[in-house]
Amino acid sequence: MPDTDTSPAAAAPLGRRERKKAATRQAIADAALRLFLARGYDDVGIREIADAADVSTTTLFKHFPVKEALVFDEEADQESRLLSAVRDRPEGRSIPAALCEHALRLRLANADGDPRFTAFLELVDNTPALRDYVHGMWLRHADALAQVISEESGLHPGDPACTAMAHFALEAPRAAHGQDDPREAIRRAFALLENGWTAIDSGH
User: Fold this and answer.
1) What are the structural domain ranges in the chain?
2) Does residue 164 or residue 75 have the better pLDDT?
3) Cα angle value 108/114/116 (rounded, 5°)
4) pTM listed for this prediction
5) What is the pLDDT of residues 141-171, one digit of tens each?
6) Cβ-proximal residues to 123 (8 Å cutoff; 6+ apart), any chain
7) Domain 16-70 belongs to what architecture?
């Protein structure tokens, strides 16, 4: 996935072995995305990707257990950014508003100015296997997001409102699929969450 994060990273320096593994993983992901964008996801095989990255198929599967994962190589980072969007939101900004801003930034921030990112979005939108995978990938973050929502809102851990908000927020960006104005579709989906959350948040 093309990097859409514009915030400074504060990662600890990697050792030589870790740097080599990270470089190999990046080479595989770059080769896969290049081939997918050129010919389409379904017309590119695993062996072809491994050859393009100059690795064995065994090495490829050590880094990416399924083909779909080759397109989404930053899942751990994505969860961290998602949770930070709630924890680090400006004072006075609601949780739904912070999640809406994050969804817009993640999916659409570079779409107008970066042809490669636009092509990436089209690849995902036009490939059912990738749409299903990214949907499942995001829902894997639901428990962590619900926990942060409970912490930030003062609601009891396990409150069904937090669980529902997490699931709805992760589902909401799908409203953009097939829409002429994806930004407006996402904003409208989150407006529904905002209006419902206001009643929950003020009544706890």
Assistant:
1) 16-70, 75-203
2) 164
3) 100
4) 0.66
5) 899 999 999 999 999 988 999 999 999 998 8
6) 36, 37, 40, 41, 71, 130
7) Orthogonal Bundle (1.10)
